[in-house]
Design a protein that fits this description.
Number of helices of chain A: 10
Radius of gyration of chain A: 22 Å
Strand content of chain C: under 5%
Number of domains of chain A: 1
Distance between the termini of chain C: 58 Å
Number of domains of chain C: 1
Number of strands of chain C: 0
Number of strands of chain A: 0
Strand content of chain A: under 5%
Number of helices of chain C: 6
Largest sheet of chain A: none
Shape of chain A: globular
Oligomer: heterotrimer
Largest sheet of chain C: none
Chains: A mainly alpha (266), B alpha/beta (245), C mainly alpha (239)
Radius of gyration of chain C: 24 Å
Chain lengths: 266, 245, 239
């Protein structure tokens, strides 16, 4: 089974030939291919999904045990935190695992020297992280709804909850992927991942927290908060995509004349 | 007689804080030649490779590949790197590993060779449907090379490709490299394996103290190439110690 | 010039500080509701403003560092981040003192306190990454700083969208003129001190870089092998 690829034999198609292909399209299509590839691999042994889901369950139980004594009036104040703490912990674990694996097999570098848009790598990894986080959030939301009566609005307003969880996890993935990738490519120590991830993702989680609380309390400004959360998503992805290549491989500089070169030429 | 250089490095320096790894290095790579690069451990060979591959910027100096200083999508489509780590996805089969990169190339508007014949060329046809995670190191090496050859690269950079291979594997690799060279590729081959270099390289250069400190071209008569390469290698500290010099 | 400017700033600050203290404690009336402890405001607010300014400076310098691979920008970024930590500590200490005296609670977890604390954490992460990160992590730290700088408007905006026990943003605008008069000297004195420290720290970093380059050049001069021709040696023909 071979893949027939169009194009002149032996000669790459230059950018000017790709007039009908917008740069953005190439990046998106490559991102999708990479993401599907990652998910397909994941489907073969389910390591990441199973371990992250199990971890979510463990966190849920720990939260349940810690806060079971809360009165019904206090619960709306605590449940949002439980949800987003869980996302923060699972997210750190997931990102750490995804990029440890990349580093172990050095596949990130293979992608960086290939004709792959760097931003595609970013988008693909963020997407995979998001998928895992969404799966784990499902467990957490269901669990919280069962354990805490105040979390009933999650079940009563599933669309709103879904939108909220989607936005919150997306913001987390957008910010976290940049830094996890940066650490992996610079052979940085993994311990720094936690140092970086938690402070950086907290602003987004803050917005998510407030939105969740307003959902649980039936506040009418929920949609406003959701909109703000969406705005943080856009910001996270725009900045993350823009910074990805400079962080991972640097920006090529113009020729630097040097005194040493002048000496040598003498 | 001298073709213009496909890759031209001028005054390339790289330092990490106070540690100077490369010090104003000059190197040319021409189409249709295999250049072997030898150097002691820590001499900066892998750093040099990373700079050529566009994975890290030099601290100073100029790197020009095919007339361009950048390492954008177009440039990356025209060269390939085979690292000393296999850089393959263990849970994908050999064929799927190649397919991924072929599709990525296609989306970037680049041609790729047919996949199975490429695997066959490197003696991996029988393992096409096996997950790469089950491969031996030598097989992974060959898979990485297969991936590198997909795009008929104008420049091929190899970092210690002979290390994990058995004798038949080395012979195969040497013949593949020779045929790529004859096709017109410029090949930079980093290796400790002098025997392999002598058998396949057109020129062997020594990286020492951050610069190219010696070069041995293959003379028409061929016989003296081996001894001259060994003499060049003898300048490396470890080899000197071994030889009791 | 490089040495004079920080000294000049520090000298000026040294002159203005006594004036500021005098203005705050002697010339400004004691605020009705909060009493004498309200005077912490005159240190707390300038420190907070300076902290936010330095965070933005750090982020902008980090952006330039990434874009142009500039050592000067990198030095500014490092210096500004460290000063964010210092001024941030000032804010996070004076604030709770004021809060405890005024509202009975040192830390109320309101939006502005949280955001300031977050900003502090982000730049602390920056300093940690710079200190303990591996070779390529300067660029990673720069990305951190950029995100941190973007976080600054969050602080500002947070007060507007959420209910908070902080006095509203308008507190500075609604002060009587005599209290404004006390704020300016404190702000100027603290700003001058911060700028002086920034310049000194930048100079330290740049000196470090210069030393590294001198070391490298020394090394290079010591390696005496001339560079042979990069192509095939003419005498023995080519490949």
């Amino acid at each position: 089974m071979s893949v027939a690829i169009a194009g002149p034999v032996g000669a790459p198609v230059t950018r000017s030939d790709r007039v009908t292909t917008l740069l953005g399209m190439v990046a998106l299509r490559q991102a999708w291919l990479l993401a599907v590839n990652d998910l397909r691999q994941e489907a073969r042994d389910l390591e990441l999904i199973l371990t992250s889901s199990f971890f979510s369950l463990v966190v849920l139980i720990m939260l349940g045990m810690s806060f079971s004594a809360l009165g019904v009036s206090s619960q709306p104040l605590a449940v949002p935190g439980m949800l987003w703490l869980s996302v923060a912990f699972v997210g750190a674990l997931t990102l750490g695992r995804i990029f440890t694996r990349e580093r172990e097999f050095d596949t990130l570098r293979a992608l960086l020297v290939a004709p792959v848009e760097r931003v595609s790598i970013y988008l693909a990894k963020a997407f995979v992280t998001l998928v895992i986080l969404l799966g784990c959030s499902l467990i957490t939301v269901l669990g919280l709804t069962l354990l805490f009566p105040a979390a009933q609005p999650f079940a009563q307003r599933p669309m709103a909850t879904a939108a909220l969880v989607l936005m919150g996890c997306t913001a987390y993935a957008g910010v976290g992927t940049l830094f996890a990738a940066g650490l992996a490519s610079s052979s940085g120590k993994n311990v720094l991942l936690s140092v970086i991830l938690y402070p950086l993702t907290m602003p987004s989680l803050l917005f998510a927290l407030v939105a969740t609380r307003s959902l649980l309390e039936g506040h009418e400004s929920f949609t406003t908060y959701l909109g703000q959360l969406a705005a943080t998503n856009v910001l996270a992805f725009v900045v993350g995509a823009w910074l990805f290549e400079p962080v991972l491989v640097g920006v090529p500089q113009k020729r630097r004349g040097t005194a040493r070169a002048a000496r040598r030429r003498r | 007689m001298d073709a213009p250089a496909l890759l031209s490095l001028r005054d390339i320096s790289k330092h990490f804080g106070r540690l100077a790894v490369l010090r104003g290095l000059d190197l040319d790579l021409r189409a249709g030649e295999i250049v072997g690069l030898i150097g002691a451990n820590g001499a900066g060979k892998s750093t040099l490779l990373s700079i050529i591959a566009g994975l890290m910027p030099p601290s100073r100096g100029q790197r020009v590949f095919a007339g361009s200083e950048g390492v954008g999508l177009d440039e990356r489509a025209r060269f390939a790197v085979v690292s000393h780590t296999a850089q393959t996805y263990p849970r994908l089969t050999a064929l799927e590993n190649l397919e991924l990169f072929a599709k990525l190339r296609a989306q970037a508007g680049c041609h790729s060779e047919p996949l199975l014949p490429t695997l066959d060329k490197l003696g991996l046809g029988y393992a096409a449907q096996r997950q790469a995670g089950t491969f031996s190191r030598g097989m992974l090496q060959r898979l990485a090379l297969a991936r590198a050859l997909l795009g008929k690269p104008e420049m091929l950079l190899l970092d210690e490709p002979f290390t994990a291979l058995d004798r038949p594997g080395r012979t195969l690799l040497a013949s593949v490299l020779a045929s790529e060279r004859d096709r017109g590729a410029a090949i930079l081959l980093i290796s400790h394996d002098l025997e392999a270099l002598v058998s396949v390289a057109d020129r062997v250069v020594l990286l020492e103290q951050g610069v190219i400190a010696g070069a041995v071209p293959r003379a028409p008569d061929n016989d003296t190439f081996g001894p001259r390469v060994r003499e060049l290698a003898g300048r490396m500290p470890a080899v000197r110690a071994e030889a009791g010099a | 010039m490089k040495k004079i400017l920080p000294i000049a700033f520090l000298g000026a600050a040294a002159l203005i500080f006594p004036v500021s203290v005098k203005t705050i404690f002697l010339d400004t009336p004691i605020e009705n509701q909060m009493g004498t402890v309200q005077k912490i405001f005159y240190f707390h607010v300038p420190l907070a403003w300076i902290m936010m300014l330095l965070a933005v400076v750090c982020g902008v310098a980090a952006g330039i560092q990434l874009r142009r691979d500039s050592k000067r920008a990198e030095a500014v970024s490092i210096a500004a981040a460290e000063l964010v930590l210092v001024t941030g500590l000032g804010v996070l200490i004076t604030g709770p003192i004021w809060g405890h005296a005024t509202w009975g609670k040192a830390w109320t977890w309101d939006a502005r306190q949280v955001s300031t604390g977050l900003l502090w954490l982000i730049f602390a992460a920056y300093v940690l990454v710079r200190h303990y990160g591996a070779a390529g992590s300067e660029r990673l730290a720069a990305a951190l700083a950029i995100f941190g700088a973007i976080d600054v408007p969050v602080i500002y905006y947070a007060v507007k969208i959420w209910k908070t026990t902080h006095p509203s943003n308008d507190v500075a605008g609604s002060l009587p003129a005599s209290m404004w008069a006390a704020l300016w000297p404190a702000l100027i004195a603290l700003l001058l001190t911060s700028m002086a420290l920034l310049l000194i720290r930048v100079q330290q970093e740049l000196t470090d870089v210069t030393l590294d380059e001198a070391w490298v050049d020394l090394d290079d001069a010591g390696a005496t092998k001339p560079n042979p021709a990069p192509g095939p040696t003419p005498a023995t023909g080519d490949a």
